[in-house]
Design a protein that fits this description.
Layout lengths: L2 H22 L6 E5 L2 E5 L1 H20 L2
Antiparallel strand pairs: 1-2
């Protein structure tokens, strides 16, 4: 695949993810813990969604190769 097309596809995917992240925010499966001055955020559901999206993108890119 041409590197130019790869960068265009990657940019479009990142734009879509950024827009979704802005409008959706935290997903229900994301855990946040606070105790005193310490806070811990574990975005498990966000990680799963991003993983699925990237898997689909790489699968589609592999088909057009």
């Amino acid at each position: 695949m041409n590197p130019g097309k790869l960068f265009i596809i990657a940019g479009i995917v990142l734009l879509i993810i950024g827009l979704l992240w802005t409008f959706i925010g935290r997903l229900p499966g994301d855990f946040s813990f606070r105790k005193g001055n310490v806070s811990f955020h574990f975005p498990i559901m966000t990680s799963i969604v991003v993983s699925i999206i990237l898997t689909l993108v790489f699968f589609i890119m592999g088909r057009f190769r």
